[in-house]
Each structure stands twice: as C-alpha cells, then as structure tokens.
Amino acid sequence: MKFDNNKKLLIYLLSLNFTRLIIFPLGFLLIASIATLCLSSYNYMRKQVWDFYGAWDELHLSFFIWLPITYVFYLTFKDVYIDIRRYIKSSKNNKS
C-alpha cells in the first residue's frame, strides 16, 4: 500500500510540473517563431528579399524574447529539483 501512495505522489509531482515543463517553453517558442516571421516579412518589404537568417540574428539579440525563456526554464527546473528533494525526504521518513 505504501508503494501505491508513493507512486501516486510521484505521478502528482510529474503532472504538477507538466505545464511548466511542456506548455510554457512551447508557448515561448511559438512567440519566437512568430516574431521571426514578422521580422523576415519586414525585411522582405524593405529589401524585397526573404531574409530568415537576418531576422533570426536580430531576434536572438533581443532580450525581450530570450530572457523570459531562460527565466522560465530556471524556475521550472528549480521547482522540479525542490519537489524531487521533498519526495525523497518524505519517502525516507515514511520508511523509518
């Protein structure tokens, strides 16, 4: 019975972090790809040349895109690490 409770706790911890691990980074990648397309279409209107690489160069220098992505990854993995440590401590306390 203890194994089932530990298994349920582990499933709960994984489902809790699913949103932060999967949905937020995918959302930021979607925002980054839309911004890349906007910059390349702006370059096309300006130069009449599709310039995806130039748009990507302009994009990766922008802190407004990459700083939030880095911050979300930091918060996600920090919380995952804390949750795993709590799970290990609680399982050790349950055994003794």
Strands, helices and their partners?
Blueprint: H1 2-47, H2 52-60, H3 63-95
Helix pairs in contact: 1-2, 1-3
What would a concise description of this structure say?
The protein has 96 residues and is mainly α. Helices cover 92% and strands 0% of the residues.
Question: Would you mind describing this structure in some detail?
Answer:
This protein has one domain. It contains three helices and no strands. It has helices at 2-47, 52-60, 63-95. α1 (2-47) packs across α2 and α1 (2-47) packs antiparallel against α3. The mean pLDDT is 68.
Keywords summarizing the entry:
96 residues, mainly alpha, membrane, 3 helices, transmembrane, transmembrane helix
Overall number of domains:
1
User: Any idea what the shape is?
Assistant: rod-shaped
In angstroms, what separates the terminal alpha carbons? 16 Å
Run of helices and strands:
HHH
| DSSP strand content | under 5%
- What integer value in Å does the Rg equal? 21 Å
Share of residues in helices: over 70%
> What are the low-pLDDT stretches, counting only 5+ consecutive residues below 50?
none
Q: How would you classify the helix and strand content by structural class? A: mainly alpha
**SS elements, strand count:** 0
User: How many H/I helical runs?
Assistant: 3
Mean pLDDT: 68
